[in-house]
Specification:
about 150 residues; alpha+beta; 5 strands; about 35% helix
Length: about 150
């Protein structure tokens, strides 16, 4: 599994935060605590990196993912009672927009920490079909911003 050790380290940090704080706080509280925990664990990260969203070459807005860890893993946090399909779709859309392969969706809102590893299936399929490897973010700290397009 790609980036297994890194994702395990991130999940371990999240478990420490959830163990200490429990559930019931707003997402921003967990985001701040996770930043502290990842920093203490020696992980490098960017927090709330803004990206532009385009449709038909026109800028239609911006979005921010919670964390990019080591320039390889996108991390999206939630503080909901339970994860819904919309949360998973959001994480997958962020992966596509940032041209990243792997992400983590972490929910601090339930009694036990819940996390899901998410994959950018469009990017994985491009890799399988021998797409131009220069267009793929393989840990470059300067995350490429791409246009989100509908269709294939």
């Amino acid at each position: 599994m790609k980036y297994k050790e890194l994702t395990q380290n991130i999940i371990g940090c999240a478990m420490k935060v959830h163990s200490e704080l429990g559930n019931g706080f707003q997402e921003v509280i967990y985001q701040r605590a996770l930043a502290i925990e990842m920093q203490h664990s020696g992980l490098s990260f960017e927090r709330e990196k803004e990206m532009e969203i385009f449709y038909r070459d026109e800028r239609i807005g911006t979005r921010r993912a919670d964390f990019f860890v080591e320039g390889k893993i996108m991390v999206e946090l939630k503080a909901a009672i339970e994860l819904e399909d919309a949360h998973l779709a959001q994480a997958m859309n962020y992966l596509e927009a940032y041209n990243m392969e792997i992400g983590l969706l972490i929910n601090f809102g339930s009694r036990s920490l819940v996390f899901k590893r998410v994959h950018n299936n469009k990017l994985i399929n491009k890799l399988k079909n021998h797409a131009d490897p220069s267009k793929i973010n393989h840990g470059n700290p300067l995350i490429r911003q791409i246009m989100v397009q509908t269709g294939g």
